[in-house]
């Protein structure tokens, strides 16, 4: 996770089922049979690191995250995580699988890092990443629209925070690796009061929360909530459909 925002592990895990599904879809495409070292690059609260350990029980599993709150939560869950920015991570010679799940959208230089990491991996190794591809969705566009008129400057990511699938396919292929790239839009069924607002509070709204006082943050949410309800209306059964596009990249060294 990015070190530029303050993360709340409990809030992040409120939608664990929806957030974890892309991770499982990602690692299902990793074909490296018996990796020596598996890296969870941006492990968050560590709830998915154990999945990697179960998938490859003979491997050394390395977990790191730039957020002290997330690292503390991971350690409390029994994961031997360490605090480190992903930008500073360098693959060891025995690194055979690297998984980075919903992390690199927070790292502006991730395209250059991906090229460097893949180039440093041994033959047969796999780099697997998943990032949100929904920065143009109403949930994010409305945040940017309100922030643009706010009296306090708020630094937010734009639609350029991540690339399109074709860009990542070209990037991976240029390293000499075999590229497996796809996208999926999950129709997430959310329930409760202002469910889309609750979803983005733990992710997209973190920079807003860090930039504003508690009073101003409450004002911001008061402006945002009705517009989200309009963009994502409640259905007849009381639930709300929240389309969430994800971009997946699996690169295998040859």
Automatic annotation (TrEMBL):
Record InterPro entries: SAM-dependent_MTases_sf, Trans_acon_MeTrfase_C
Q: Pfam families, alphabetically? A: Methyltransf_23
Q: Where are the transmembrane segments?
A: none
Q: Domain of life, per the record?
A: Bacteria
**Could you tell me what this protein is called?**
Trans-aconitate 2-methyltransferase
